[in-house]
Structure formats: C-alpha cells, structure tokens
Amino acid sequence: MIFETAVFYFFAAVLLVAALRVITARNPVHAALYLVLAFFTASAIWLLLRAEFLAITLVVVYVGAVMVLFLFVVMMLDINLERLREGFWSYLPLGATVGILMAFEMALMIGGRYFGFTEMRLKEPAAGYSNTKMLGRLIYTEYAFAFEVAAVILLVAIVAAIALTLRRRKDVKSQNPGEQTRVRRAERVALVPMSAEKDQ
User: Fold this and answer.
1) Quick one: pLDDT at residue 18?
2) For residue 121, what pLDDT is reported?
3) Alpha-carbon dihedral sign for residues 133, 134, 140, 143
4) Cα–Cα distances in angstroms (integers) from residue 40 to residues 4, 14, 27, 68, in the given order
5) Cβ-contact 56, 43 below 8 angstroms
6) Distance from chain centroid for Cα 1
7) Does the pTM of the predicted model rise above 0.70?
8) What percent of the chain has pLDDT over 90?
C-alpha cells in the first residue's frame, strides 16, 4: 500500500465517522462542528484527487461562511431538542431507502471497473498544468453564457433578500452624516449670559 492510498483511507474513515456523528449527535452545536470536520476531510480527499480549486472552495464557502452562519443560528436560537426528535422514527424508512440507493450508486462507481461498467483512471498531469486555470478557461469560453445567467440569478437573489429584510422602523434612532457635517456652531452652541455670584 502506497502512502497516498493510506492517507486516502485515513481521511475517508474520518469523513465517515464525522458524517455519522452529524446525524447521531444529540447536541446541534456538536453536530455542526462534526459537519465542519466532514467538510475539511472531504476537501483533503479532493486535494488527493488533484482538485485543488474545489477543495479550497469547499473550505472557504462552506466552512468559512455557511457553517459559521449555521453555528450562529444554532447557538442563538432556543431550540427544543425534544420536539426535534419526535418525528425521527417516522422518517427512518425514507432515509434508509435514500441511503441504500446512494450506497448502491457508489458501489457501481467504485466496483464498476472490475465488472466492465466504468473505467476510472487518474492520469498524471503534464508539467505546469493548473486545473484552476483550465476551469477558468472553460467557464469564460465554452460556458460563458451559463455562467452569466447564474451570476444574474444570484444577483437577483441577493437584491431580493435585502429588499425582504429591509424594513424602515420609526422607533429606531439613526444618524444622518449629511446633516451632521452641515451644522454651524450657532445652531448647536448657545451662550447664556449669567450674572456673577458673590461669595458670602
């Protein structure tokens, strides 16, 4: 067994244990942290497959943004854990069916080359090859239209989210920098003449 294979099996084992703990942990904060560990190990496996861009994207987007948001939401909300566990057994048949289908598909992909269904080969890249550069070239040449459509959809979603959450409230105090810079001393400072008092 070569070193790269041993590292793959180590990260795969950690990923399976972390994914199992995500659905079995009783504390939602612990489940979210196990999901962070699963994302890190998945990105390490992608690094072994020479997909550096996808690995860095997984860490930056999911671990750096989405999971931080999840942790804030989980820790700030008062979650009733007993109510969450009430319908667990009712969803077990559907979850088991989906899990069996996913395991079957993975078995076909991994074991398909032994039965002649698929052939998986990891070719050695040429000197100076960069998959990030090739991905950027494909996005901005062959898939430029689809990329622009996706960018417009994301922009509309961002604007819609801001418009839905932007509410003007009258009971909230706010500052107006324009008015603050236009003030004069006579408008803010008043000199009140007072007669001097004598000590008794």
Assistant:
1) 92
2) 60
3) negative
4) 17, 10, 20, 14
5) yes
6) 35
7) no
8) 18
Which has the minimum average pLDDT: 16-20, 34-38, 86-90, 146-150?
86-90
Structure tokens at 200: 């008794």
Where helices occur in the chain by DSSP H, the ranges are 3-24, 28-48, 52-57, 67-76, 81-84, 92-115, 131-139, 144-165, 177-181, 185-188
Under DSSP, the state recorded for 195 is P
Task: Break the chain into its structural domains and give their ranges.
Answer: 126-164
Phi, psi (rounded to 5 degrees) for 21: -70, -25
What the block records as the tokens of 137 is: 């070239």
d(CA 99, CA 200): 94
For residues 29, 31, 34 and 39, what is the CA-based torsion angle, rounded to 10 degrees? -100
φ/ψ bin of 50: left (φ > 0), alpha (ψ from -120 to 50), beta (otherwise): left
pLDDT of 150 reads: 93
Q: What is the pLDDT of residues 71-117, one digit of tens each?
A: 777 777 666 666 666 766 787 888 889 989 988 888 887 776 666 65
